[in-house]
Amino acid sequence: MRVPFYPAHGCCRICGRMIESGDGEVLCGECRSGARPHFDRAGSVFRFDGMARRMLLDYKFNGHVWMRDDFVDWLAALLSVRFRPADVELVLPMPLTLRHRFDRGFNQCDYLAGELARRIGRDCDTSTLRRIGSPRRQAGLSREERLLNVAGTFAVARPDAVAGRTVLVLDDVMTTGATLSECAKALKDAGAARVWAITLARPAIDA
Ligand SMILES: [Zn+2]
What we know:
Blueprint: H1 29-32, E1 41-47, H2 50-61, H3 68-82, E2 90-93, H4 98-104, H5 108-119, E3 123-124, E4 129-131, H6 143-150, E5 154-156, H7 159-162, E6 166-173, H8 178-189, E7 194-202
Parallel strand pairs: 1-7, 2-3, 2-6, 6-7
Antiparallel strand pairs: 4-5
Helix pairs in contact: 3-5, 6-8
The structure holds zinc ion.
Residues 12, 14-15, 17, 27-28, 30-31 line the site of zinc ion.
């Protein structure tokens, strides 16, 4: 099956943001400047709008689990197109914030990360990466405010699990990348060699 990854052409080699004239192997202005994120590469399956947005929200909040294996198919396809699956040594789902864990009780990323890890023959670790704070909602905040909001809110419970390894963090939506960058910072501080970020969706606002 052919998957129309977002963006289809010309994205930043590091953050995955769409670049007008890019050929897929260039850097956006931000990543060329000092503002590059702490992760080494990021990619998303689809643009967060229309039917894709509906499917994802239904999976996340309305228990529409029948789409989840298709999501894994698409994530696996993206992984082989934009990353090198053989280099991934550990898969980590983005942990829920404490507030969301209380509200929702389960992490929809756990299943996706677990299945993706199984497909590439790697372990999925749901306990090493932890949230240690409850940031305000990121929606409505600028990129700078988002970075401040999530600063210091991740902890790595077992640094030896990630030290010297290439780890893949899976989240559902990447907006400015502030949360994934902060998460990558914690993993790098714990000794991770490379941090890659894969998400199902990203909105077009950062294009
Ligand atoms: Zn970039």
